[in-house]
Design a protein that fits this description.
This protein has 733 residues and is an all-beta fold. The protein has 3 helices and 53 strands. A hairpin with a 3-residue loop joins β13 and β14. One of its GO terms (cellular component) is integrin complex.
Length: 733
């Protein structure tokens, strides 16, 4: 004859400048990565119980008046008041102060029934309420003993017992929901129902799991404290009932049909060896042996007034073994739960049993959506870990915002994450705190929640960048520039004090690798020319964080103040972007140009031909007219005989009325051609590109000299060259 057992390893302003052709990005501030998120790991509180008592198997934060308590279950602890009882278990009330004290809660006369190994403290729950409601503590292996005269022997029926404590943690009232005077047979009906292996309290309901009902088919027992009536929920799907399903292994309640109704949850992790959850709908896991339904949590993830559902499958196996999963179901209304397209997996670590426990933490990060904690108590060779997930408008983030282990707390803990509790603000800073049990090290830890700072940032840019308008001067040169204004607004629900923000502004994020950056920050002392890429938008990015802020006012007389954290918005990590465009004066979306090119050869003495040896220089005057929309990135290609070599652009031809030379840059050349980049934007105007070419005969070879505007570059010297013939040319360069 077996019993169900839960034990064991199972604001600022910045100016950026655009020179008519320049680019450089400068990082302003080094941003440090954010530390641990909502839960503070530096000032954790640890509580220890008797050795080998499994102290921490269940935990519960509780508050009554001005007093905050950590209630801890130690299901195999010995009783100091009844030394003859073997390992009955105990409930400890720990005062959360600088000097913690433990008190053992008395369970009353009912303990006089056989309480050996009853596992008092296997489950704990609290009635909701700001000032703390009743507490329920259960011992699912408590046995009802009766003597059969007919058989001449005692019979022990593991009915299970729960104790309901007042909010001052006194005057326990026993509840034995499975006791029946006529019950005599172990396993049959409620003879071994093991009530209380799990429990959950609402304002009016006491919900207890009884997985041993009817040969471990299981049931969920609901006691209405207002009417005094008891209801029993079995699996009413007659075709699906199977012995050993363990319905009631986990229980809960939520608002699934409507915000004004309460529906009860019951998990059956052994249903067909796959697992099942049954509120007003049925969820069945297809993974064999996953223990789907061994933990359940009803929580309104998307803040729509209806409860969504998280179901743990801690023995689900992925690549290795028993990594564990949590299934997510989003309420579509009227208890129509749609499973999300992903599962929560933690670190997907070997034998972690992620999903063993799930707890609703309330809104830790002030974004309006509840957050949850998931325990993986066997991760890292039974050391354990706890993962924090944040609720979102669409449901829940699939990635945890925080991972907490015993080592990150500086403590040697084992089975950390076996139990979780929240719902109470122990330090009066306006945020609910979290308790975590680690029963293999007989410990429990309380983690306080850090206050949240909400920062809204914006980047203001001009709508367009007009290259014709030079609003700034750089090195006494008119320069095209734009102002980038970064603004921050800061708000906190609880924190009061100065906030030290640091931010990093990056420009031109979308620049193409084949082009240089187009912008630089004022004062760099670096300039370029020829901005060629004017089609790609100019994108700016601001990432920000806060320096560690010293808090001067404690949140209570007992606890040191906690440093605030920045709220992490969904979709990005404190990063915003904005972009602007280069202005294009086009009548249509796609510019329609009308480029007309003419060229005239200017020979010495106005001759019609040029005889080799009759002179050293000839000129080619090119005229380019655009009578349509603005042309962007125009290029001019000139080809000439091999014995003529390009020298430079003459500046004397640039004052001919309205004729304007925007800029000329050689970006490629061959022995018989040059390729000029005229300008990034060629508007409705003429361009004269005058190119003198001087044949310089040097022992039948040529001196090759390439000149573009005022930039001179000696490209190559063919064989041996007589430089005397090039002296005049070199002098005027």
């Amino acid at each position: 004859k077996s019993l169900v057992d839960r034990a064991g390893p199972r604001t600022g302003s910045v100016s950026a400048y655009c020179s008519l052709v320049l680019v450089l990005v400068q990082v302003l501030v080094l941003v440090h990565p954010a530390a641990g998120y909502s839960l503070d790991q530096e000032h954790s509180l640890e509580f220890s119980g008797p050795p080998s008592s499994m102290f921490g198997y269940s935990v519960l934060l509780h508050r009554h008046g001005a007093h905050s308590w950590l209630v801890v279950g130690a299901p195999v602890a010995n009783s100091s008041s009844s030394p003859s009882v073997r390992s009955p278990g105990a409930i400890y009330r720990c005062s959360i102060t600088a000097e913690s004290r433990h008190y053992v809660l008395n369970c009353g006369k009912t303990c006089d029934a056989e309480s050996d190994h009853q596992w008092l403290g296997v489950s704990l729950s609290r009635q909701p309420g700001d000032n703390g409601g009743h507490i329920l503590a259960c011992a699912h292996r408590w046995k009802n003993v009766y003597y059969s005269k007919k058989e001449g022997q005692n019979h022990k029926l593991p009915n299970g017992v729960c104790y309901r404590y007042a909010n001052d943690l006194r005057h326990p009232q026993p509840i034995i929901p499975c006791y029946r005077d006529h019950q005599r047979k172990f396993g049959e009906d409620y003879g071994s129902c093991q009530a209380g292996i799990s429990n959950f309290l609402t304002e009016d309901l006491i919900i207890m799991g009884a997985p041993g009902t009817s040969y471990w088919t299981g049931s969920v027992l609901v006691f209405n404290t207002s009417s005094g009536g008891m209801s029993v929920y079995l699996d009413d799907d007659a075709g699906a009932v199977s012995f050993g399903s363990y319905l009631g292994y986990a229980v809960g309640a939520g608002h699934f049909l409507s915000p004004g109704t309460v529906e009860v949850l019951g998990g059956a992790p052994q249903y067909n060896q796959k697992g099942k959850v049954r509120p007003t709908f049925v969820a069945i896991c297809l993974s064999l042996g996953s223990y789907f339904g061994s933990s359940v949590c009803a929580v309104d993830l998307n803040a729509d007034g209806l409860s969504d559902l998280l179901v743990g499958a801690p023995m689900a196996t992925g690549i290795t073994r028993e990594e564990g999963r949590v299934h997510v179901y989003i309420n579509q209304g009227q208890a129509k739960l749609l499973e999300a397209g992903f599962q929560l997996i933690g670190s997907d670590a070997y034998a972690a049993r992620f999903g063993e426990t799930i707890a609703n933490l309330g809104d830790l990060d002030d974004d309006g959506y509840p957050d949850v904690a998931v325990g993986a108590p066997q991760e890292d060779d039974l050391k354990g870990a706890v993962y924090i997930y944040n609720g979102r408008k669409e449901g829940i983030s699939p990635t945890p915002s925080q991972r907490i282990t015993g080592s990150t707390l500086g403590r040697d803990l084992r089975m950390f994450g076996q139990s979780l509790s929240s719902g109470i603000d122990i330090d009066d800073n306006g945020y609910q705190d979290v308790a975590v049990g680690a029963f293999l090290s007989d410990s429990a830890v309380v983690l306080r929640t850090r206050p949240v700072i909400q920062v809204k940032a914006s980047v203001a840019l001009p709508e367009q960048i007009d290259q014709r308008v030079a609003l700034c001067r750089e090195h006494k040169t008119p320069t095209v520039c734009l102002n980038v204004t970064v603004c921050f607004s800061v708000r906190s629900r609880q924190f009061r004090g100065a906030i030290d923000l640091q931010y990093n502004l990056t420009s031109d994020l979308l620049h193409k690798p084949s082009f240089p950056h187009r912008f630089y920050f004022h004062g760099n002392g670096v300039t370029h020319s020829h901005v060629r890429d004017i089609f790609t938008p100019v994108k700016f990015e601001v990432s920000y964080n806060h320096r560690e802020t010293n808090t001067h006012k404690a949140s209570s007389k007992t606890f040191p103040p906690l440093k605030p954290i920045l709220q992490q918005s969904a979709g990005h990590q404190n990063t915003i972007t904005n972009q602007t465009w280069f202005a294009r004066s086009c009548s249509l979306v796609n510019c329609s140009t009308n480029m007309q090119l003419s060229a005239q050869l200017v020979l010495p003495d106005q001759q019609q031909y040029f005889a080799l040896g009759s002179g050293q220089t000839i000129m080619l005057k090119t005229s380019l007219l655009n009578s349509g929309d603005d042309a962007f990135l125009p290029r001019l290609t000139l080809r000439f005989p091999n014995n003529i070599h390009y020298i430079k652009v003459l500046q004397s031809c640039l004052t001919d009325g309205e004729v304007i030379l925007i800029s000329v840059a050689i970006y490629a050349f061959t022995a018989s051609a040059i390729f000029c980049q005229l300008s990034s934007c060629f508007r409705k105007q003429r361009l004269y590109c005058v190119l003198p070419a001087k044949p310089c005969l040097c022992s039948s070879y040529l001196c090759r000299i390439i000149v573009c505007a005022s930039y001179v570059k000696y490209v190559s010297l063919v064989d041996v060259c007589d430089w005397s013939c090039c002296a005049n040319t070199a002098s005027f360069m």
